[in-house]
Write a structure and sequence with these properties.
- This is Phosphomannomutase/phosphoglucomutase.
- One of its GO terms (biological process) is carbohydrate metabolic process.
- The chain has 15 helices and 22 strands.
- By secondary structure, it is of the alpha/beta class.
- It folds into four domains: 5-153, Alpha-D-Glucose-1,6-Bisphosphate, Chain A, domain 3, CATH 3.40.120.10; 157-254, Alpha-D-Glucose-1,6-Bisphosphate, Chain A, domain 3; 261-365, Alpha-D-Glucose-1,6-Bisphosphate, Chain A, domain 3, CATH 3.40.120; 372-452, 2-Layer Sandwich (TATA-Binding Protein), CATH 3.30.310.
- The chain is globular, with a radius of gyration of 22 Å.
Length: 455
């Protein structure tokens, strides 16, 4: 097939419908291009549980091997397990997953050695250009002797590395419900949790890339309902929900109520600062006011950045930050090659909860200081015009400030909101925070009315 790469090569990864938008012959070209652009003599490849993953991985690996690269195949893994392999083995890596997208999708997340991200500005544009050339002119000739394909199991080593970073030996026994959503958490959690003082109640641990129970996207509240109910039924101490490739982790408390990722960011930041006094913590501009407040209270230096893992990882590297968190439940650790791992964040929550006697709702209350709207998407015909209308309305109000680090952020003494355009859809994304619920609700509704007036 001659694929339209503009549809499948995104800002940070490759993602599209298989086989309509890309297929195994195209995956082979991506493997060859990845080896060519990185100049790697060896690389590591893993995949999730989607039905199309094994065939795509085999084609990609053979394409890379044809360019002379030795390929280590680690098989079924979470995305952060692939990052572990890239960091521990010092190799560029490719993870075949479409995260929380429906079953017909698949994709590739790429990194250089040490889990360093590959995006449009760090190699992905070059990879796309090579693949486009080869689609038109034919695949490149093999580059001398082909590389070898070998297999390696990294699950136990990955689990051992994570548990070496968080001391769970002295925690009180906890009952935890985990909803893997039929994704890769069902593969990694049993090994990571093995031997810990936890009673594990598994939910949807069967690996099934057709997602028969619910989408593996915990950011949608509808996909947390089963976990919330199970936590209440079991009288569990908390619940954890992983997305399809298990790089994000969402938390619910003992009452089944969701815990804001901002509160988790603040909690983990406080723990990391106890290990690394005076360290820098990265947070994107949509996390709660509580995050930089907690960081400063614990002697750290908060740094605000744009939304998106490439910006977080760039700032992690630039500042030597010890930790970073996003509103979407991506958590980044210097001790994990600056890469994101929801599993390590989950271990921090378990250690914090098990190290004292309060329930989780009480423990996180000091980190959840404000009222958040969550992200609200609105379909609009003209993103720029609606954003300008919002800015004009609030420009006339005293004590209001603006910044455009990422979209439009409007702030006052008791509230703030951010309005960001989607890069791929005709959407505006709104996040609102205020000191109390009535203020947040009034502001949210006013801004939504302005946005949707021209929809």
């Amino acid at each position: 097939m001659t694929a339209d790469l503009s549809r499948i090569v995104k800002a940070y990864d490759v993602r599209g419908v298989v086989p309509d938008e890309w297929d195994e012959p195209l995956a082979r070209l991506f493997g060859a291009a990845f080896a060519e652009v990185t100049g790697a003599s060896a690389l590591v490849v893993g995949h999730d549980m989607r039905p199309s993953s094994p065939g795509l991985v085999d084609a990609f690996a053979r394409g890379a091997a044809a360019r002379g690269a030795d390929v280590t195949l680690i098989g079924l893994c979470s995305t952060d397990q692939l990052y572990y392999a890239s960091g521990a083995l010092g190799l560029p890596g490719a993870m075949f997953t479409a995260s929380h997208n429906p079953a017909r999708y698949n994709g590739i997340k790429l990194c250089r050695a040490g889990a360093a991200p590959v995006g449009q500005d760090t190699g992905l544009a070059e990879i796309r250009a090579l693949v486009e050339t080869w689609q038109q002119d034919g695949a490149p000739a093999d580059a001398g002797a082909p590389g070898a394909l070998t297999t390696r199991d990294t699950l136990a080593d990955y689990a051992g590395h994570l548990t070496s970073l968080v001391d769970l030996t002295a925690i009180r026994p906890l009952k935890v419900v985990v909803d893997a959503g039929n994704g890769m958490g069902g593969h990694t959690v049993p090994t990571v949790f093995d031997g810990l003082p936890l009673t594990l109640v598994p939910l949807y641990f069967e690996l099934d890339g057709t997602f028969p129970n619910h989408e593996a996207n915990p950011l949608d509240p509808a996909n947390l309902v089963d976990l919330q109910r199970k936590v209440r039924e079991e009288g569990a101490d908390l619940g954890l929900a992983f997305d399809g490739d298990a790089d994000r982790c969402f938390v619910v408390d003992e009452n089944g109520d969701p815990v804001s990722p901002s509160a988790i960011t603040a909690l983990v930041a406080a723990r990391e600062l106890a290990k690394h006094p005076g360290g820098t913590v990265i947070h994107n501009l949509i996390t709660s006011w509580s995050v930089p407040e907690v960081v400063r209270e614990h002697g750290g230096a908060p740094v605000r950045t744009r939304v998106g893992h490439s910006f977080i990882k760039q700032e992690m590297a630039r500042t030597g930050a010890i930790f970073g968190g996003e509103h979407s439940a991506h958590y980044y650790f210097r001790d994990f090659w600056n890469a994101d791992t929801g599993m390590l964040a989950a271990l921090h929550v378990l250690a914090a909860l098990g190290g004292q006697d309060q329930p989780l709702s009480a423990l996180v209350s000091s980190y959840a200081r404000y009222t958040e709207s969550g992200e609200i998407n609105s379909t609009v015909a003209d993103q720029a015009a609606r954003t300008a209308a919002v800015r004009e309305t609030f420009a006339a109000r005293p004590g209001v400030t603006f910044d455009e680090l990422d979209g439009l952020t409007v702030s006052a003494a008791d509230w703030w909101f951010n309005l960001r355009p989607s890069n791929t859809e005709p959407l505006l994304r709104l996040n609102v925070e205020a000191r109390d619920e009535p203020t947040m609700a009034k502001l949210r509704d006013e801004v939504l009315d302005l946005i949707r007036a021209g929809a």
